[in-house]
Structures are given as structure tokens and as C-alpha cells.
Amino acid sequence: MNQPLLTIAVPCYNEEEVLHETAKQLTAVMNSLIEENLASEESKLLFIDDGSRDQTWAIIEELSQKNGFVTGIKLARNAGHQKALLAGLETAMGFSDCVISIDADLQDDISVIREFMIKFHEGYDIVYGVRDNRESDTFFKRVTAQGYYRFMKKMGVNLVYNHADYRLMSKRALEELSRYSEQNLFLRGVVTLIGLKTTEVYYARKERFAGISKYPLKKMLAFAFEGITSFSIAPIRWITLIGFLSFISSSIAGIYAILVKVMGHAAIGWASLIISVWFLGGLMLMSIGLIGEYIGKIYQETKQRPRYGIETDTFSNAFIQRKAVSKADTVTRVK
Ligand code: UDP
Ligand code: MG
């Protein structure tokens, strides 16, 4: 039987410091997979340049001259990690039997790629890479991340605990994924909706070996918020509940005020009045803001804009050229 064609998709945003080393290490992994008959010789590394402003694309081009595994796609502009990854997955899908996604900084242990492939051979469609500790993270990132997973679970969003975007997906799983056509894409949430045969593989996460995190706090918060509002309408329900509760309590307070008045005691103070006005005003503004967030999402979805644009794609070219060559071969042979 032919070995499965594996593509390793690596989104890169301003990663000039790490690319050489990343390509080197992933090439070594590829070679050993091929040696062990776990992956086909045609397997590829696919670097997705997410509109970097440094030498990233130049390095990808240079690497692809020297290294037969290396291919790349260059996005027309910075689309963000999730969309860049999606661009990679959808490009790779057409020519691959399975695709592994991994970050360019190799914080995720590449030695478990072998286990991913073994699971794939066992018939799994989705294999999640799950971190078994967070020691390499800062205290702050660890606490916020843990809180986030718990919170998401409460909100009814099913995430694999401690799993980022390090995973293997089969062609079948990717085809399912590409049918989720939403603009507000939160990959890790969507992948758990696909179903199919899934399993997990555990590993320890390392520190970034060079360069700085491309996820500063601001992006991290935006990402977390995106994850919630593109998956769950629980916040809107909460607001209805809070509104209902404050209506009940203000009714009770109203009855109390009337009783006090009737019994001839002193009028209720100005302070409590002003506080409740501010409290309700704030609550309402917040609620309107949150509902606006969802309406904004609807607005974006209805526009149905493309989620990313590809400027150059050497990955598909490599396969199309090869097909053309082998076709030419058969034609001459037939003659
Ligand atoms: N990344 C991207 N586009 C962006 C931001 C990040 O493609 O707009 C890539 C980045 O190059 C890396 C991955 O997403 O391969 C994860 O980023 P990073 O390692 O900086 O995040 P962290 O590990 O700190 O969460
Ligand atoms: Mg990282």
C-alpha cells in the first residue's frame, strides 16, 4: 500500500529568526517518518506566510530551492493565525492524505509527530496534541489560560483541554472542516464539532527558542472573546436573566419604599437612588454592547467576504507540475 502523503502546515508571521531551524528540524522528522514507512516520500512542509513584514517569505523561497520538502503559500495580507492556518489546511487538503498543523516556533514537541502518524495509521481522523503541563508558560499566561478553558466549558463551548492548534487531521476531517464556512473562525472549537474518530496524544510544551510571542495580551484577549462570541449565545441569555433579576429586585425595593412612606418614616436617601440609576445604566450599556457584538458578527457573516487571499502558492504548483510531467510521461509511453 502507498504510504499516506503528509503535509505539515506551519503558519508564520514575522518568523525570520526561527524558520531555518524549524525547517531543519521538521525535515529531519519527515526523513525519519519516510524511513519508517509512516509517510510517503512526496510529503511536504507547507509554510504559510501570513503577511509578514520581515524576511519570512524570502527565507521560505530560499528554503524551497534547497529543500525538496519545503513549499509555501504567501497570503496577500496578515489574516491572523487562525485564518492563516485555515489557508494552509485548505490548500494542503487537495493533495494530502493527512495534515498536521504546528506553530513555527516549535514550542510543541515535534517528536510526537510520529505518534500522530501511528494514530493515523490506526484509523483515527483527528489526533489532538495535548500539553501535559504548562511549566514553560509565564504564571500569568497559565492562570488566564486555565480560567479560560473553565469559563468556555461553562459557556457550552466544547474545547479539548490544553490543546492548541497542534493536531493531525485526515483528508476526510479537513473536507468536513471546509464545510464550516463561518467568517468568525475559531478552529479549535469547530474541530471538536466535526466528530469522526478522534484521540489525543500528550506532550510537554517548551519555550519559544527564538523571537517573541506573536500573541501579545491584546491579541490574546481578542482571541478569547472571539472564541466565546462566535460559539455561544449564553452571554445574551445571561443578560436577559440579569435584567429579569434586577427587575424583580427593583420591584421589591419599590414595594418597600411605598411601605416605608405609608408608615411615615423618613424618605429613602438620595444616595441609594443615584447608585441604582448608575447601576442599571451601566448594566444596560453593557448589555447593548454585548448584543451589538453579536449583531456585528451577523453583519460580518452576511457579507461573506473571502477569509484570506493567497498571493503565491508553491505547494499546489509542485503537485500540479508533477502531475503534468507524469501525464506527459504516460502520453509518450502510450505512443
Ligand atoms: N501567527 C500568524 N499570524 C499572526 C500571529 C501569529 O500566523 O497574526 C503564527 C506565528 O507565526 C506562530 C503561531 O501563529 O507560528 C503562534 O504564535 P506565537 O508562537 O507567537 O503564539 P504563542 O505561542 O505565544 O501563543
Ligand atoms: Mg508560540
Per-chain topology:
Blueprint: E1 6-12, H1 19-35, E2 44-49, H2 56-66, E3 70-75, H3 81-93, E4 98-101, H4 113-121, E5 126-131, H5 139-154, E6 167-170, H6 171-177, H7 187-194, E7 198-203, H8 217-229, H9 234-262, H10 270-303, E8 310-313, H11 314-334
Parallel strand pairs: 1-2, 1-4, 2-3, 5-7
Antiparallel strand pairs: 3-8, 4-6, 5-6
Helix pairs in contact: 9-10
Bound molecules: uridine-5'-diphosphate (UDP) and magnesium ion.
Please provide a written account of the structure.
It is a multi-pass membrane protein. It is found in: Membrane. This is Glycosyltransferase family 2 protein. This protein is α/β, with parallel strands linked by helices. The chain folds into 2 domains: 6-232 and 307-334, Spore Coat Polysaccharide Biosynthesis Protein SpsA, Chain A; 234-302. It has 11 helices and 8 strands. It has an 8-stranded mixed sheet with strand order 7-5-6-4-1-2-3-8, with helices on both faces. α1 (19-35) links the parallel β1 and β2 (44-49). It is elongated and about 95 Å long.
